[in-house]
Predict the structure.
Amino acid sequence: MVEGSCMCGMVRYRYAGNFGVVTVCHCAHCRKAQGSSGVVAVPVDAARLEWLEGKASIAEYESSPGKMRAFCRQCGSPLYSRRVDDPGVLRLRMGSIDSPTDAVPAAHIFVADLPPWAALEDDAPRYAGFEPSRQ
């Protein structure tokens, strides 16, 4: 079980399920949404995510058709993204987890969009677009 929150603490959650495959996405949308070289996200079972505080403080933005990105209305911390056509899965932002976990990225995706100033310092596989299992 892990707990997480936004930067200001208004939104808090607990997740009592297994993580899917952790990826680091470097596409232009993820870079803009995170304000960094990419987003580290993991698919989770939406039914196993419990909002402890602040669910009403979560805002969602449709960043591309059918893709919603969620963040705290107060501090702007990214919390998850979701596909409208797949409501049972959220892609939880690993940076919102309060305590470190042993989960590590299994792949870097959309590295074709990686800016020259971004360095990748691990040995995870790199893919120009989605990893082969999601193509």
